[in-house]
């Protein structure tokens, strides 16, 4: 029904004399159908494609909100930051506030919102194309490819760092690389790219590309601001990882102390058992040494 309604709306928009009607129709239909497909997939699919979508996001987020959950070694050793699990934990908490405190509820809400983030990323790709001079229809067609593509739809609802970082990357590039972008737009775009780096470290390559493009345009001030934002994001990530590592070291030290206490207690119990055994042996010897009383 949604697809039929969208096609009907697209037909009406294509027939309207206003310029850009076809592009708007393509964009609206593709984004609407893409959103419906992603939400339906999020609410009906319970499979697993890659372990990271569970152990790097859902499980640590569940531990933050509900107090228990599996911990991967990356979080114990401080090899990963908590930006992505923190985002998922916020969605879990939001689900509990609206009464969706069961697994089906908070997982469905989280996966649906991740899917809608993918639709927003598709819209951002169209905006990025328009910023670089593409026609309205060509930009809408590019956004439709991402909104309706099989791979983006399949992976869209999964709580993975690629999905979480795609939206800030696209919007950040669209703002910072638009011809004639203001200083504020460059700052906001670079900040979004810094957020993407926190969510997924590999997106730092887009920051490098942004600096290179701005430098090639001889926009040295904007390039310096983007580079500063990138460095600040990396420093923040390093601080977060160092704090996680220190927390893990304190936890290990506490466990070692508890282990030492258990070892001492076990040693004391062994000594007590040895002393009790020695007393029993002495009592047995004394009993055997007593003269037996004769019968009357």
Low-confidence stretches: 1-17
| Rg on CA atoms, Å | 31 Å
Give me the oligomer status: single chain
Helix content: over 70%
Structural class: mainly alpha
Helices and strands, in N-to-C order?
HHHHHHHHHHHH
Largest sheet: none
Q: What is the 3D shape?
A: elongated
Strand-residue proportion: under 5%
Number of strands: 0
- H/I helix tally: 12
Mean pLDDT: 81
End-to-end Cα distance, whole Å, is: 109 Å
What do these coordinates show?
The chain is mainly alpha-helical and 296 residues long. It is built from twelve helices and no strands. Helix 9 runs antiparallel to helix 10 and helix 10 packs antiparallel against helix 11 (204-216). Residues 1-17 have low confidence and may be disordered.
List keywords for this structure.
mainly alpha, 296 residues, elongated, 12 helices
Topology:
Elements: H1 2-15, H2 21-44, H3 52-66, H4 73-77, H5 83-97, H6 103-131, H7 136-148, H8 150-155, H9 161-176, H10 183-199, H11 204-216, H12 220-289
Helix pairs in contact: 1-2, 2-6, 2-7, 3-5, 5-6, 6-7, 6-9, 9-10, 10-11, 10-12, 11-12
Structure in a nutshell:
The chain is mostly helical and 296 residues long. It has helices at residues 2-15, 21-44, 52-66, 73-77, 83-97, 103-131, 136-148, 150-155, 161-176, 183-199, 204-216, 220-289. The chain is elongated.
